[in-house]
């Protein structure tokens, strides 16, 4: 897109020499949906070596680079401010190694979550993340995507045990390994998890796996509005119980008049899950006056799914503050004249507030501002944050993606070390 | 005392109070090593700050004077991570030992770095909660040290390491500034510096407050001991348990020599004549654990167990664990000196690696007692020698290194939980390429460009951070004009 950089004929031949699968950005749908930004080139490397050669060329010519997988998360967060080269990792789609006895798998970044899941399932194993089946492994690591079961298993960073990356200067680096227990050297895998392509390319990842449970059950409690206190108590007691839930979700589909649903996922043996579901039902029923409790063998409606949103705000908190968080969400919605649909892993201390695509940008920005005002940092250090994960550019511009982020000066220093030219997904992280 | 340190002394006394600054040679020697006594170095100065603000002031003063500094918790580390610098300041965190807050509803606690690991669980216990990471030294080791080393413990197979239980850190940067990493809830905004910092062995800054996750105490805990004629039979039981889809809280194994040592030290009364003892612990809801227990018992029998003991109350469980927990120290009963090694192999390679260790041991004529976390392939071979006998120490050191080489050959790691420190930095180039190590040091340069914070640890060769190159927004004019190409 930057003709000064990319119109030089030498650029095209150097890129093609590095990676034969090269096309013009204008002839590709690679960036469709990202604010209409058309890259000069799209390259699909077939190996880490090709990806490395590509980034060396990009570094030599000062080109801006946007990595991509299946594109499921591409429109989340700020769009790139510049994009000379898209590196599409979908050709690197092999499950390289699955050692069932070690509960470990090594995967290329472009393999999809669904593809990996089917390989693992044949051995009764899983990567315990609730990521979309069509998302790529690299994309899920780069975006830190995790669903309801983050309550028990954590986010990609918690399951990642080894990573291969290509730095902005084209250097290939590995960290971790293929054993679960390993403290040799800095954990570059943690740094790249959630880095959204702004530090380099992820080309290969190694994960620790979990056995697939023999049985699962969902226990739900519906709390009629305005009984928010009942739902709050139910979340706290489910999350704090020794029944070892895999997920403790809250679903509040919009507006103060709607019922709140607490959903708990249990995984284990058939007899164990049946007994625990019975005990969990009692726990939810005892939480508040108006609970209607059910045990389901299929996920309840909207489980782990966000309504197709234009603006998604993530609120994180300590569970003891859940009541005031719900209060703040309702009040900020009323202030701004919007009706957020609220759902997420409340037991793990996070909720997503989604605004209808029809919400006015001004109103959405007012909602975010009102929320930040009502949920200030605690004196004893940070106890949560209000972050805009996705929004139309005018909302992002008016509200800002973040409030104050702890450690942001160090983040900028890390970015400067890994990508001194600020060429990797420029604009994605306003923080750096 | 050098002139630089002499000049720093009044400032340190101002910050910490004269009583908390140690200059006496004999007192300084108390701090000359951590749990790895093979490396010793008397620090120029020891300070014991009492607050985060004091730590920040101490570090800022060091940074300004260009004096290296090293943080130390309880000094139980086994890789020399807290080895002082002769020309530097040792910052001892043991005065900062308050549990600042326990929030039982949120299952969160905020603690100071000098708090011992076990006291976090003790503070949480009245609420039915506990802090999961449990290194064997948990009675004395500090949570700040656990963060630096990303400590594990016997139960990390199921419950994870320190990094999975830390949600926020207040740190003093190597420039002497106080900042938080993480938002205190476990979600990440921006880069996961919290994750990168944890396990960085004190080289990226000093922790002054820690937000930890607490977990509900398990409803039931069952511990099972199975005796085998050989470690390979025990190994088969381990593989079968994992293949059955069970993730126990802990799976530990000891071989004949380490059983002999434990017997001599604590009279743990393990089955006589056993060639290997396997300890399996299951925890969780009663409704699940009962079913798992019968499966595990059946698999242990099928693998050839000569005896099985089970315990479900704390006192009986403690009896089973006594031999395992005493194993390292107990080896002192059968050998004047020993090296505690810490290596990891893929679980499926355990059998092959143990045979290799046995043959290496025989070739070298050096005895090796094996104690290991069988569930995650983390070996702790204890290499026995007599330091009074010429040449034995060298032979033991060589064998110990050969064991690490074997771990790497099978795709493992040079350390599972003890850290690299000064002890293993020379093995890092065997596990990682020069580019890998260079990339790790980019993080170091971001946090500590002056390389004053615990220098000389982890990396065999420090990277010169230098000036950060300026932003290159366009190609070199000669390239753009087609007069030159960059290769």
List keywords for this structure.
heterodimer; A: 432 residues; alpha+beta; Uridine Diphospho-n-acetylenolpyruvylglucosamine Reductase, domain 2; Alpha-Beta Plaits; five-stranded antiparallel sheet; globular; B: Uridine Diphospho-n-acetylenolpyruvylglucosamine Reductase, domain 2; Uridine Diphospho-n-acetylenolpyruvylglucosamine Reductase, domain 3; eight-stranded antiparallel sheet
Descriptive report:
The complex is a heterodimer of chains A (432) and B (487). Chain A is an alpha+beta fold and 432 residues long. Chain A has four domains: 88 residues, Uridine Diphospho-n-acetylenolpyruvylglucosamine Reductase, domain 2, CATH 3.30.43.10; 121 residues, Uridine Diphospho-n-acetylenolpyruvylglucosamine Reductase, domain 3, CATH 3.30.465.10; 82 residues, 2-Layer Sandwich (Alpha-Beta Plaits), CATH 3.30.70.3450; 91 residues, 2-Layer Sandwich (Alpha-Beta Plaits), CATH 3.30.70. In chain A, 30% of the residues lie in helices and 23% in strands. Chain A has 14 helices and 19 strands. An eight-stranded antiparallel beta sheet of chain A has the order 15-12-14-13-17-18-16-19. Chain A is globular and about 70 Å long. Chain B is globular and about 70 Å long. In chain B, helix 8 packs across helix 10 and helix 13 packs antiparallel against helix 14. Chain B folds into three domains: 90 residues, Uridine Diphospho-n-acetylenolpyruvylglucosamine Reductase, domain 2; 118 residues, Uridine Diphospho-n-acetylenolpyruvylglucosamine Reductase, domain 3 (2-Layer Sandwich), CATH 3.30.465.10; 190 residues, Vanillyl-alcohol Oxidase, Chain A, domain 3. In chain B, strand 5 and strand 6 form a beta hairpin. The interface between A and B is large, with 102 and 111 residues.
């Amino acid at each position: 897109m930057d003709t000064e950089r990319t119109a030089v004929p030498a650029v095209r031949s150097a890129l093609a020499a590095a990676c034969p699968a090269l096309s013009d950005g204008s002839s590709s749908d690679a960036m469709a949906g990202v604010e209409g930004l058309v890259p000069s080139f799209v390259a699909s490397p077939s190996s880490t070596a090709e990806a490395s050669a590509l980034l060396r060329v990009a570094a030599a010519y000062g080109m801006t680079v946007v990595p991509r997988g299946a594109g499921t998360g591409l429109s989340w967060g700020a769009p790139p401010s510049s994009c000379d080269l898209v590196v599409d990792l979908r050709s690197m789609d092999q499950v390289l190694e699955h050692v069932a006895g070690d509960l470990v798998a090594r995967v290329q970044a472009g393999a999809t979550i669904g593809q990996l899941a089917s390989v693992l399932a044949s051995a009764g194993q899983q990567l315990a993340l609730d990521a979309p089946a069509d998302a790529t492994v690299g994309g899920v690591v780069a975006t830190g995507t995790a669903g309801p079961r983050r309550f028990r298993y954590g986010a990609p960073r918690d399951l990642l045990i080894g990573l291969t990356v290509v730095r902005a200067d084209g250097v290939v680096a590995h960290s971790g390994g293929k054993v679960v227990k390993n403290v040799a050297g800095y954990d570059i895998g943690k740094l790249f998890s959630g880095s959204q392509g702004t530090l380099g390319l992820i080309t290969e990842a190694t994960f620790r796996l979990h056995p697939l449970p023999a049985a699962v059950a969902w226990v739900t409690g519906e709390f009629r509005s305005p009984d928010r206190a009942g739902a709050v108590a139910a979340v706290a007691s489910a999350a704090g119980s020794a029944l070892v839930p895999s997920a403790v979700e809250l679903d509040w589909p919009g507006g103060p008049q709607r019922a709140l649903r607490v959903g708990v996922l249990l995984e284990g043996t058939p007899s164990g899950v049946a007994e625990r579901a019975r005990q969990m039902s009692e726990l939810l029923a005892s939480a508040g006056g108006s609970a209607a409790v059910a045990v389901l063998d299929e996920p309840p409606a909207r489980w782990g799914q966000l309504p197709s949103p234009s603006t998604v705000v993530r609120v994180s908190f300590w569970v003891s503050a859940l009541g005031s968080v719900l209060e703040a969400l309702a009040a900020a919605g009323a202030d701004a004249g919007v009706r957020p649909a609220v759902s997420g892993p409340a037991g793990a201390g996070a909720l997503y507030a989604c605004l209808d695509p029809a919400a006015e940008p001004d109103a959405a920005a007012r909602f975010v501002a009102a929320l930040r005002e009502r949920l200030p940092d605690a004196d004893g250090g940070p106890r949560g944050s209000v972050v805009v994960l996705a929004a139309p550019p005018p909302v992002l511009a008016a509200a800002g993606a973040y409030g104050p982020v702890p450690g942001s000066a160090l983040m900028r220093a890390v970015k400067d070390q890994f990508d001194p030219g600020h060429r990797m997904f420029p604009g994605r992280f306003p923080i750096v | 005392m050098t002139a630089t340190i002499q000049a720093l002394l009044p400032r340190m006394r101002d910050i910490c109070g004269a009583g908390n600054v140690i200059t006496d040679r004999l007192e300084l020697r108390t701090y000359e090593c951590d749990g790895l006594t093979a490396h010793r170095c008397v620090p120029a100065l020891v300070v014991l700050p009492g607050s985060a603000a004091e730590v920040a002031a101490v570090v800022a003063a060091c940074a300004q004077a260009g004096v290296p500094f090293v943080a130390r918790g309880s000094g139980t580390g086994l890789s020399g991570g807290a080895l002082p610098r002769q020309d530097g300041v040792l910052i001892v965190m043991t005065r900062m030992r308050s549990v600042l807050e326990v929030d039982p509803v949120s299952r969160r606690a905020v603690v100071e770095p000098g708090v011992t690991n076990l006291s976090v669980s003790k503070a949480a216990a009245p609420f039915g909660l506990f802090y999961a990471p449990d290194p064997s030294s948990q009675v004395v080791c500090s949570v700040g040290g656990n963060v630096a080393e990303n400590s594990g413990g016997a139960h990390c197979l199921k419950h994870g390491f320190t990094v999975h239980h830390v949600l926020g850190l207040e740190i003093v940067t190597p420039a002497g500034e106080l900042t938080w990493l993480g938002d205190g809830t476990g979600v990440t905004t921006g880069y996961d510096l919290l994750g990168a910092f944890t396990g960085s062995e004190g080289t990226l800054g000093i922790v002054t407050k820690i937000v930890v996750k607490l977990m509900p105490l398990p409803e039931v805990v069952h511990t099972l001991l199975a005796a085998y004629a050989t470690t390979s039979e025990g190994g088969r039981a381990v593989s079968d348990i994992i293949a059955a889809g069970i993730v126990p809280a802990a799976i530990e194994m000891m071989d004949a020599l380490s059983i002999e040592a434990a017997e001599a030290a604590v009279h743990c009364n393990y089955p006589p004549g056993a060639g290997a003892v396997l300890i399996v612990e299951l925890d969780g809801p009663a409704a699940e654990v009962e079913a798992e227990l019968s499966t595990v018992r059946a698999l242990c029998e099928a693998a050839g167990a000569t005896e099985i003991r089970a315990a479900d109350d704390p006192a009986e469980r403690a009896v089973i664990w006594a031999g395992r927990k005493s194993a390292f120290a107990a080896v002192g009963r059968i050998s004047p000196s020993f090296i505690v090694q810490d290596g990891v192999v893929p679980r499926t390679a355990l059998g092959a690696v143990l045979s290799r260790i046995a043959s290496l041991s025989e070739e070298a004529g050096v005895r090796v007692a094996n104690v290991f976390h069988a569930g995650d392939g983390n070996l702790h071979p204890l290499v026995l020698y007599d330091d009074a006998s010429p040449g034995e120490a060298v032979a033991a050191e060589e064998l110990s290194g050969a064991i690490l080489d074997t771990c790497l050959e099978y795709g493992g790691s040079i350390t599972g939980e003890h850290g690299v420190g000064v002890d293993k930095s020379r093995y890092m180039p065997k596990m990682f390429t020069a580019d890998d190590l260079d990339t790790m040091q980019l993080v170091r340069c971001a946090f500590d460009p002056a390389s004053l914070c615990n220098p000389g640890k982890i990396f065999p060769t420090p990277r010169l951070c230098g000036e950060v190159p300026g932003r290159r927004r366009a190609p070199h004019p000669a390239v753009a004009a087609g007069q030159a190409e960059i290769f």
